[in-house]
Amino acid sequence: MTIFHVIFFGFIIVAGYCNGSAKNLVNPKGIAPYGVRGVLDGAAIVYFSYIGYDSASTMAEE
Hints:
Order of helices and strands: HHH
Number of strands: 0
Radius of gyration: 19 Å
Largest sheet: none
Number of domains: 1
Shape: flat
Helix content: over 70%
Distance between the termini: 34 Å
């Protein structure tokens, strides 16, 4: 199973490298043309969702 994961992620990296463009990384409107606010908001939601799930499972354990 581990070899499958390595091959899978290697394929994803190679496919991204072949289809990607370096100008997207250096262009002022490249990676986050509307700012990183949406990315940070999404990360915060996922983080607090996990913390809530973790606390519920911890309480169920005791």
